[in-house]
Design a protein that fits this description.
Strand order of the largest sheet: 1-3-2
Radius of gyration: 25 Å
Strand content: under 5%
Helix content: over 70%
Number of strands: 3
Oligomer: single chain
Largest sheet: 3 strands, antiparallel
Number of domains: 3
Structural class: mainly alpha
Distance between the termini: 58 Å
Amino acid sequence: MRTVKEVSDLTGISVRTLHYYDEIALVKPTDKSEAGYRLYDDKALETLQQVLFFREFDIPLKEIKAIMANPALDRNQILQMQRKMLTAKKERMEHLIASIDDILKGENKMDFAVFSKTEVEEMFRTMTERMPENMRSIAIKEFGSMERWKEHYMEAVSSEKMQKGYAKVVKWYGGKDKFLSAVQNPVGKEVAESYNKRIEAILQKLIAKRDCAPESFEVKEIVGEYGFVMKQFSQIKEEKGFMLAQAQYYRNENIRSMTDEKYGQGASDFFARAIESFYGKE
């Protein structure tokens, strides 16, 4: 058993922080001495170590506690998760160091990649695992094999154009880690269907106000609801950029024709103008 002072000296974590972790039931001491001092065994120290791994990524304590309390995750799963996160961070650090070396040598390549190779591979794995079997079979047939499909995906996502696009998306989510978390933990099928029905009901309410000005209170009230639901559904932190991208989506030629066919001529333009009136153009 180690005292709180010994644990502090061993880890570099202040005694005050260890007391706080105890108060919020994040890292509880194993026992207390007769004098009332906190005591920690090796298992408690291992828990503290896992917390410190997560803190390397500035993950809020509340989220760390939820992860570690998740009954679906055992010790090895948590360690595997942390290993992937640390590997990705290591790659980013190596990438930054290489960029600095290039600048010092006068060979700056201006590489603004958002995701590392490991993260892109993880995105591909998650996508293929959650994709319906018939769609996965079609894709494999089109590319000739799963490996060729993966190579095409890696090349496409790693392109400068795609990375710049992802930079915007990451901003909507409030950070890369939160975006990757949303990708790896999408809402379930039933929840998605529920959200789609809710969004459809909102669009029906919105098109019913097509004779009103986009800047009118009646229209803005509905667009505000639209943005709120899309924020929940997409698990994003800030919906403005997302919704303005949605407005541009409605102006896409193919989407315009499909939207107008479903909701009436001019519906797509009305949806776009209503969203832009509410959020303001970038």
